[in-house]
Amino acid sequence: MRILVQKFGGTSVATPERRAQVVSKVSEAVHSGYSPVVVVSAIGRSGDPYATDTFLNMVKGIYSDLPKRELDLLMSCGEVISGTVLVSTLNSLGFEAVLFTGAHAGIITNDDFGDARIVRVEPGAILEQLANGKVVVVTGFQGITEDGQITTLGRGGSDTTASALGVALEAETIDIYTDVDGIMTADPRIVEDARIIDTVTYNEICQLAYQGAKVIHPRAVEIAMQRNIPLRIKSTFSDAPGTLVTNMHPDRGVGTDITNDRIITGIAHTPSVTQLRVLTENAPDLHLTDKRIFKAMALADISVDFISVQPEAALFTVSDEVSSKAVKILQNMGFEPGVIRSCAKVSIVGAGIAGVPGVMADMVEALSDAGVTILQSADSHTTIWVLVHKEDMATAVQALHRKFQLGV
Ligand code: ADP
Ligand code: MG
What we know:
Elements: E1 3-8, H1 16-31, E2 35-40, H2 52-59, H3 68-75, H4 77-92, E3 97-100, E4 107-109, E5 118-121, H5 124-131, E6 135-139, E7 142-145, E8 150-152, H6 157-168, E9 173-178, E10 199-200, H7 202-210, H8 218-226, E11 231-235, E12 243-245, E13 266-279, H9 286-299, E14 305-309, E15 313-319, H10 323-332, E16 338-349, H11 359-369, E17 376-379, E18 383-389, H12 393-403
Parallel strand pairs: 1-2, 1-9, 2-6, 3-6, 4-7, 9-11, 10-12
Antiparallel strand pairs: 4-5, 7-8, 11-12, 13-15, 13-16, 14-15, 16-18, 17-18
Helix pairs in contact: 6-8, 7-8, 11-12
The chain binds adenosine-5'-diphosphate and magnesium ion (MG).
The site of magnesium ion has 4 residues, from loops.
């Protein structure tokens, strides 16, 4: 059996016309001799009747403490709806399709409701249906705990479902279908001349995804990488070849790493973060103070980023959503933090950055020429990040894209 996982995002299943395109991709796979496993997201975006955010808005403000278990039950409904509609469409066109929830598909997760991790997949039931010639449609974004509780996998979770199934079923390829022609050198909504990246390694794309390129979820990339299953990111609405994510270079054969072919792979951005600056110079015991600050954030389940600890201050960012909560905690500890809300993190990512002189100099030059203020910066061997004001985000992404000549 040649198994192919095909995942279709929310925008791909939003309208009957779009679902017809989905069906034609499934049909192509069947006619090419594949046994497809089709993973679907919920229909549309916030405001659309069956979108996950729409469900959340229905209960928001009624009872503020709805347990996460019940929230997950609610959030898992969107994929059941889109999956049912897709099965119905496939069957009406002569396919024999069957709908599996995360539980039916054997996707076992931990009990971290709202952001559950897949611990293993039991693919027996899917394999049985495939052997009977069925097209198996699986609701993305969800799983089940060992003791039978329904969980969801966090934003972008359907990508993770697709990868986990691809690995468990030893699929030939995992195809992630979306509304753009592939992974691009920057978000095409911000950079007009962003270019499709033809081939890229798991590591490079993982970094881009972690830094905000939401076209694929980083967890999905990590899972596929474990077993070297190729990922392709493609458009539901065109026949463009898309982006191939793998460890190999197609022209140079198995095992050749392609990471050094280019310095910069792409530019990513994450909007809506708040910078907090806690002055610690007058604190009686500096080490203890820094420790207390980050402990307090962790205890409140606030994830911190962009951490820079100096003798006189501790700087870090949190998402705008939890910034008021973080400030309150710091105030209760006796600090009056400096707060800059609505910042954005802009990153240049490339496996070739390490050891190449002048990349940071070029970055600073591009941003200062564009009139962008850098609030903070940090780097690793594959990424350089800068924090900028929200209103500078698009300008910064565009300026860096131009500076590093990533466009078409
Ligand atoms: P889906 O509903 O298919 O999961 P998403 O909205 O999650 O779709 O991801 C697709 C979107 O990701 C694109 O419409 C694009 O605006 C955005 N995006 C951000 N960065 C990139 C990038 N580097 N390459 C391609 N798309 C990107
Ligand atoms: Mg997505």
